[in-house]
Amino acid sequence: MSHPDRSGEKSEAGARILERIRSANVGRDAVPHPGDFGGWRAPDSPADVDPLTGFTTMFEATGGEVINAPDLASAGSWLEAFVEACKAESIAVGRGVPDEVVPTLERVDASGADLAVSSARAGIAETGSLVLDARDGRRTQLLAATHVVLLQVEDIHGSAREAFRDLSSDLPAAIGLHSGPSKSADIGQIMVKGVHGPGRLVAVVIGSAST
Amino acid sequence: MSHVNPGAYREAAARSLRDTPEVRGSVGSATRTFEASRTRAFAPIDGDRWRDWARDVKTHTLLNLDQYLEQAVERLEANGVHVHWAEKDVDALRVLDDIVERHGVRTAVKAKSMLSEELGVNEHLERLGVEPVETDLGEYIIQLLGEPPSHIVGPAIHKSLDECRALFHDHLGTPLDGTPERLAAAAREALRARFLGAELGISGGNFLAADTGTVALIENEGNIRLSTSIPNVHVAFVGIEKVVPTLEDVAGFLQITARSATGQPIGLFVSLIQGPRKADEVDGPEEVHVVLVDNGRTNALADEAAWEALRCVRCGACLNSCPVYRQTGGHAYGWTYSGPIGAILAPAMLGLERAMPLPHASSLCGACVDVCPVRIPIPDILLHWRERAVEAGLTPLGERAGSGMYASLAARPRAFEGAGAMLRHTPWRQTGRTLPVLGSWAQERDMPRPSAKSFRQLWKEGIE
């Protein structure tokens, strides 16, 4: 890369900042790290549910849709019917999506696609989130108005902390957590859907009971 | 940056209330909605425990900030990120010069970032001949208006639907009675072209995980993911206080921040960015820069009281709960960060003299400290700055004379008693109106009839 080497200058400024930090902290008592975040619930709050139920409840609460598919084949037939129902003519497909589930449509870049299909790396029950890996394709995750994401039921973690622990051994350039359709209340504090990201988000959970 | 003018707070607040009374209505309704959502979101969790945890992680990190920053830099560089240190705003802005030149940048799409407001990134890009395009819908609205944000989380909460309708009609040709959906769709279309054509994406950073070198960003619209995914170059401006020890810590902070800010369990989109596109990835920026910004933060860290304000996660909960902020919104404060958090950060980061009278823009009611997710003792720090202001002779003459008079009376029991007797027998209504400052207040109020005897007299006689 042709980036000019300014490391000398950079480290001088950095060294001065670090020195100011050290001298500011002189004489202050140590405070230990409090340990893992526990997502502690209120005492009277309902007991934990299984990851799939938890994920479904949280994801649907933000306007996300959940489809349960017992296996890949049934996910494929659902997708075919979905494409027909929403009259999609072109599709963008993430790299991790198995070919056999992709309907026979014109495959295009997500910027011009009616529909995008991604494969999730994991799910999070606590927050109702799909964990999307850059290796699957970032444009596919973001540019189409409707986004369908395949998620294996066994990849749903109970908590975000567990999911992040699992991620940290193999991190791509970027991870996106998508927890519902794009929304904004910036115009007169009224909620609207589909502002920049997908306005419709569907999680197809594979390995869960049939719909 | 160009908008720093806290000194005009009193006049600006008065002007806002007098000339734009609708701002108070919009800000009041938006902050009450935010606050109600936060309250609902804290009901199912053990909020005290979450807040203790968040406070302790942040305090621990600040006390070891040098080590965690060094670790973060090591990780970022191992991930292929260009790391820059910036002591001042001009140092941070200078990083852009070289990037703009090397990549022939003409358009930069911007993810909402308060730090970029603090630094004046947009003005600098314009000087470089680059068009900065704010992509968060609220930021887009205020960019069209040429205004700074008036709230940390909702930059355009001071604008009503009708004002947005008129604005979008002028700029995007939407009908004057367009629905919010219609307006948002027009903005989506206009901005989509900018995302696809921009050479540079600029963001802030909510958190920086030291163990993985991850910049974490929270949002609801998807514009931050787009700004950091589509252009070939991404620059993230990150305050040095944003570092936390681990990515697992980020998992907790994402949730407490979202619950405190908007009452959501998590932002609808979260970006966890490690670096530039890897060999096995199909898209994403090829060059990623992280600019670690001091710009007054080490001054704040060195202050015996105000250093605790650096725990702030910028959720805006203190603004939403503040009866003073609710009257005017953020513009009156004359600085990027408004409300209670702005009033305690400004003296630490800008210097006390420049920040006056912001530490006085509070009734010390303490609503802010009850909602702060990292338990910053905001009223204590406000008092700390007021004391420093007295020591430095920065308080108004009338106030100094008044408190000097009281101090001299309080030190002389006889004189104190005499003054008390005088006050008890002063006709309040007539005298009150003639007083400076208190006059207008006294005019509207009845004074309770004072006791015939002073407390000291009653005490001597034996109170029943």
Helix- and strand-based class of chain A? Answer: alpha/beta
Backbone shape of chain A: globular
Structural class of chain B: alpha/beta
Order of helices and strands of chain A: HHEHEEEEEHEEHEEEE
Describe the main β-sheet of chain A briefly.
Answer: 6 strands, parallel
Shape of chain B: globular
Major β-sheet annotation of chain B: 6 strands, parallel
Task: List the topology elements.
The complex is a heterodimer of chains A (211) and B (464).
Chain A: H1 7-25, H2 51-61, E1 65-69, H3 72-85, E2 90-93, E3 106-107, E4 115-119, E5 122-124, E6 129-133, H4 138-142, E7 146-152, E8 156-157, H5 160-167, E9 174-178, E10 183-184, E11 192-193, E12 200-206
Parallel strand pairs in A: 1-12, 2-3, 2-4, 4-7, 5-8, 7-12
Antiparallel strand pairs in A: 5-6, 6-9, 10-11
Chain B: H1 9-19, H2 21-42, H3 47-63, H4 65-78, E1 82-86, H5 89-103, E2 107-110, H6 114-119, H7 121-127, E3 131-134, H8 137-145, H9 161-172, H10 180-197, E4 200-203, E5 207-209, E6 214-219, H11 223-229, E7 233-239, E8 243-244, H12 247-261, E9 269-273, E10 287-293, H13 297-302, H14 317-321, H15 325-328, H16 339-350, H17 352-355, H18 367-371, H19 378-391, H20 397-410, H21 413-424, H22 428-434, H23 438-443, H24 455-461
Parallel strand pairs in B: 1-10, 2-3, 2-4, 4-7, 5-8, 7-10
Antiparallel strand pairs in B: 5-6, 6-9
Helix pairs in contact in B: 1-2, 3-12, 9-10, 16-19
